[in-house]
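Deliverable D2.4 — example input (structure tokens):
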């Protein structure tokens, strides 16, 4: 990992620490936010993340507060709580997802499980890690034994053994990166970039195949744009899933 990568991951860890601290005493889990699709917990987590990122002078694209420019060309793509519906119902499967991009090129990423504390990280060109240890995908090539994560309602046409709908795209992508799941796809092509940016970089650095359901570029800085990320342990499995 380069010194620059260490610096970025240090900033992302401080951001995750701030969010964890803000939610440690939080007790309004089911309260709504300012938008119909938002919870109070999202706003609290976002405010905590911005305290750190604004002080660092970087640009930010957040699901909750939109795009704000920084002093340089780098932007941190932020989902303060990915899986906030899980969090609101006290289902212990949600995370903070952070990805640094230079322009629209991913540089570094961190996904921290906000219940277990597991931390997935990646630095462009430097591999991917879980709690500091290198990770790699399962190597599964055939759908007959594949266990995949999805967003949306799966139909019988998916050529896989089993499906999991877990409610956090970032954690599902990290599960592909470390071999817990064999693939992940958004069946509705309805993900904002904050949902998947960190997870896609972590998958790619771990050696998984990553792409988009219709072949579009995944990394961008448009708050309203929605895409369909796909990750798979191997290109062969990815081709079967995208074709289906």
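Example output (designed residues):
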């Amino acid at each position: 990992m380069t010194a620059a990568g260490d610096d970025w991951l240090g900033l992302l860890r401080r951001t995750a620490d701030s969010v964890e601290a803000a939610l440690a005493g939080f007790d309004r889990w089911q309260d709504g936010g300012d938008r119909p699709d938002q919870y109070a917990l999202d706003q609290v987590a976002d405010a905590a993340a911005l305290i750190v990122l604004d002080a660092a002078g970087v640009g930010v694209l957040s699901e909750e507060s939109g795009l704000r420019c920084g002093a340089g060309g780098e932007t941190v793509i932020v989902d303060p709580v990915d899986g906030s519906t899980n969090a609101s119902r006290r289902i212990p499967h949600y995370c903070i997802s952070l990805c640094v991009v230079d322009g629209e090129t991913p540089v570094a990423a961190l996904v921290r499980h906000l219940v277990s504390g597991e931390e997935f990280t990646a630095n462009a060109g430097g591999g991917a890690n879980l709690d500091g240890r290198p990770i790699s995908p399962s190597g599964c090539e055939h759908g007959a034994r594949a266990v995949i994560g999805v967003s949306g309602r799966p139909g019988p046409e998916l050529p896989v053994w089993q499906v999991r709908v877990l409610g956090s795209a970032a954690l599902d992508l990290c599960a592909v990166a470390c071999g817990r799941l064999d693939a992940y796809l958004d069946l509705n092509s309805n993900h904002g970039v904050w949902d998947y940016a960190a997870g896609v970089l972590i998958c790619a650095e771990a050696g998984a195949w990553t792409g988009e359901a219709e072949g579009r570029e995944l990394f961008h800085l448009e708050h309203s744009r929605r895409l369909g990320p796909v990750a798979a342990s191997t290109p062969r499995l990815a081709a079967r899933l995208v074709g289906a």
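The domain at 143-243 is CATH 3.40.190.80 (D-Maltodextrin-Binding Protein; domain 2).
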